[in-house]
Structure formats: C-alpha cells, structure tokens
C-alpha cells in the first residue's frame, strides 16, 4: 500500500507503548484556513447539521445561551468533499500505518468548546461508547484548528491505559449523553497542540479535556477509524455513531436548490 503520509517508526512505537501520538502539521497553513472557514459554517448554522448537532456538556456545564460543548456528528455527510481533502486522507494513511491496512473511516465529528464555556470533557475511553467488537483496533485522530492549550481544553491522556481493561463508566452530569469513569490529571499528560497538528489515540486510551476558560474557540475536527469488516458488523447491528437519517443529506440554509 502506498501512503501519501509516511509515518516515522518512532511515532508508531510511541503509539503502541502509550496509546496516543502527536503528528505535527498534518495540514498546511492554507488548508488550515480552509478548514476553519468550513468549521465556522457548521458553528454559525450556515451548514445546518440538524439533529446531528447536540450539546455534549449537558449537566456538566452551566451555560444557558450557548452549548456547553458543541458536538456535530458526521460533518462529511453534510459536506462530502471533506472526505477527499487532506485531513481525512492523511489521517487514514496514519491510522493504517498504526493499526493495519484494513482501517477505514468509521465516522467523523466536530467538537468545539466556545470561549469561557468552562465545561470539561470527563475522563472516558471511547470504547465505552461503542458496542463490543471482536476486533478492538480503533484509532481516533483529533486535529486542532486553534492552538490547543491547557486553558482552552487540549486533550489529556493516561499513557498505557489502552493496554489495561476498560474502566467502569457511568452517565456524566446526570441527564446528558456523555460518559465518565475514574481518572485524574495526576495520572495523565496534557497535550498542547499547534493549529494544524493532531493527536491520535487508540479506542481504549483514557482521555479528558479541561473546559475552555480562554477568550477564543477551541475547534477540534475528529475522524475515527476501525477495520472495514468491524464497521460492516456495527452497521448490521444498527450502530452508526449518530448518523441515522442523515446519510447523504446536505442542508445549507442559503442554498436555493
Ligand atoms: O474534544 C474533546 O474535548 C474530547 C474529544 C474526545 O473525547 C474524543 O475525540 O474522543
């Protein structure tokens, strides 16, 4: 298999040991500007994601007029050209080099923390959100479209946690959809990122982010990958990561067509 993006073997070894790895500058400055413009169309509703847009921070934050944490599932269903752009292509290349050439995109999502929303993403493992799979290989790529800092909610990971059994998860914040488990910053490592850089993590790696207490957005674009035959199995079981009813649909408010 030929790869557009060649992964350094040192990065691969780091991922295997720690369950996460940083890749710098996965997109260019010009591409970053294009992704930011698209992202803002989702945030301001020019691209209407309908019921795919929810507040992941219900019960965790105190904001009334703005989502505590904005989550938009399947942005590439609303703008399919995203799948042909550099980020999806390069992230797929990296996922295949990390976990195998049978990795395919399972779903994508946007998670934004607006200025001063101060809502944590609780400690969790992604696998706790998913149905149990016989093949547990899964990789998530988290691209920073803004500088991700400790103060605006960069990712934190517990190194090596992907090699241990899943921790017990419960509903976080009472009535929201977020899950949480035991975890603390003292066990973890904060991962500030420059805009245009990304961090990839395994589906079982424990992670969390602080709330955004800064004056600017913390825009993250996430793409998840798993083996193609496991995606087929998920779909057969009716599990599609919030895609239901939106496949192929594109709603643009100012689109007259
Ligand atoms: O962006 C965040 O705060 C959390 C992201 C996350 O949990 C994930 O990508 O799995």
Please describe the topology of this protein.
Layout: H1 9-18, E1 20-23, H2 29-43, E2 53-55, E3 70-73, H3 75-78, H4 86-99, E4 103-113, E5 121-124, E6 139-144, E7 155-157, E8 170-171, E9 179-180, E10 189-191, E11 198-202, E12 207-209, E13 218-227, H5 228-236
The site of 2-oxoglutaric acid (AKG) has 10 residues, from strand 6, strand 12 and strand 13.
Characterization of the model:
Helices cover 20% and strands 23% of the residues. It has 257 residues and is an alpha+beta fold. It has one domain (26-236): q2cbj1_9rhob like domain (Jelly Rolls, Sandwich). The strands form three sheets. Strands 1-11-6-13-4-3-2 form a seven-stranded antiparallel β-sheet. Strand 8 (170-171) and strand 9 (179-180) form a beta hairpin. 43% of the residues are buried. The model is unreliable at 247-257 (pLDDT under 50). It binds 2-oxoglutaric acid (AKG).
């Amino acid at each position: 298999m030929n790869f557009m993006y060649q992964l350094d073997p040192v990065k691969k070894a780091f991922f295997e040991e720690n369950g996460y790895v940083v890749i710098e500058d996965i997109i260019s400055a010009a591409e970053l500007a294009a992704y930011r413009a698209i992202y803002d169309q989702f945030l301001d509703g020019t691209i209407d994601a309908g019921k795919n847009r929810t507040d992941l921070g219900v019960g965790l934050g105190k904001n009334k007029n703005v989502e505590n944490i904005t989550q938009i599932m399947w942005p590439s269903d609303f703008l399919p050209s995203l799948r042909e752009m550099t980020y999806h292509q390069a992230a797929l290349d990296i996922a295949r080099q990390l976990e195998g050439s049978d990795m395919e995109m399972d779903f994508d999502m946007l998670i934004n923390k607006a200025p001063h929303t101060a809502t944590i993403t609780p400690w969790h493992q992604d696998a706790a959100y998913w149905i149990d799979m016989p093949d547990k290989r899964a990789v998530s790529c988290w691209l920073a479209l803004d500088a991700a800092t400790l103060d605006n909610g960069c990712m934190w990971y517990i190194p090596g946690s992907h090699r241990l059994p899943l921790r017990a998860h419960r509903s976080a914040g009472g009535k929201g959809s977020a899950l949480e488990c035991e975890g603390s910053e003292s066990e973890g490592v904060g991962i500030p990122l420059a805009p245009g850089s990304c961090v990839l993590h395994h589906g079982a790696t424990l992670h969390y982010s602080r709330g955004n207490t800064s004056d600017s957005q913390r825009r993250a674009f996430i793409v998840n990958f798993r083996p193609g035959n496991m995606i087929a199995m998920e779909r057969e079981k009716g599990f599609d990561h919030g895609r239901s009813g939106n496949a192929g649909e594109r709603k643009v408010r100012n689109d007259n067509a």
